[in-house]
Amino acid sequence: MSGWTIDEDGWCDGALRYDSPHHDARPDGAQIDLLVIHNISLPGGHFGGPHVSDLFTGRVDYNADPSFADLRGLQVSAHFFVRRDGALLQYVSTDQRAWHAGASMFEGRPQCNGYSIGIEMEGADDVPFQQRQYHVLAALTAALVARYGLSQVRGHEHIAPGRKTDPGPFFDWHFYQVCWLETLRGQPALALTSRGLGFPSMP
């Protein structure tokens, strides 16, 4: 997973591509500088199935689980999805606006979808994530920082407080940051040229 790149069209060479119709153009002049981390599982707390990809690509089988009735008419996507086995999937070009954040604000700027990249981690608020997921996330973060010069990373909970809780209390921000710094040590050119990446304050 080392040395991934984001190509000129906004696609990661380390990801499996599944095109989503749920995206549109970013606002004119938008500077992509924020990374947003989410968690997702469908049905809730169940991992490894096709349903997340089905949701993001508009192909949900609403009869597959009773809880899916709540998904009818929902048009959402993320740029990336990190499975628990470490597989990386991409649904939307990072040059485009994926529909992942909803009503949100960061540092006084509303509508975070316009200037952010969204990454879904396969998981739930009450389940620890897998170490391999953090390593994949760190490698992907490096590719995104190299391409866009991202300056901040936050959880969905930080940009939509009171409305969203993900990636949740079991997401280990400290370990993510450790993996990120290890990745930088393995890519000295990126470490020299990238701006510092700001993480949420940790207790």
Entry summary:
The chain is α/β, with parallel strands linked by helices and 203 residues long. It has 5 helices and 10 strands; from the N terminus they run E-E-E-H-E-E-E-E-E-E-H-E-H-H-H.
Topology (elements, then pairings):
Blueprint: E1 16-17, E2 23-24, E3 34-40, H1 51-56, E4 80-82, E5 88-90, E6 97-98, E7 105-106, E8 109-110, E9 116-122, H2 131-148, E10 152-155, H3 156-159, H4 173-185, H5 188-193
Parallel strand pairs: 1-5, 3-9, 3-10, 4-9
Antiparallel strand pairs: 2-6, 4-5, 7-8
Average pLDDT, rounded to a whole number, is 95
How large is the count of helical segments? Answer: 5
The SSE order reads EEEHEEEEEEHEHHH
Q: Beta fraction of the residues?
A: 15-25%
- The Cα radius of gyration reads 16 Å
**Side-by-side strand order of the widest sheet:** 1-5-4-9-3-10
Shape descriptor reads globular
Structural class: alpha/beta
> Percent of residues in helical segments?
10-25%
Main beta-sheet annotation: 6 strands, mixed
Pick out the low-confidence regions.
Answer: none
How many runs of DSSP E, i.e. beta strands? 10
Distance between the termini: 30 Å
Structure description:
The protein has 203 residues and is of the alpha/beta class. It is built from five helices and ten strands, in the order E-E-E-H-E-E-E-E-E-E-H-E-H-H-H. It has helices at residues 51-56, 131-148, 156-159, 173-185, 188-193; strands at residues 16-17, 23-24, 34-40, 80-82, 88-90, 97-98, 105-106, 109-110, 116-122, 152-155. The strands form three sheets. The protein has a six-stranded mixed beta sheet. Strand 7 and strand 8 (109-110) form a beta hairpin. Helix 2 packs across helix 4 (173-185). The longest helix is centred in the last third of the chain and has 18 residues, at 131-148. The chain is globular, with a radius of gyration of 16 Å. It starts with 15 loop residues before the first strand and ends in a 10-residue tail after the last helix. The mean pLDDT is 95.
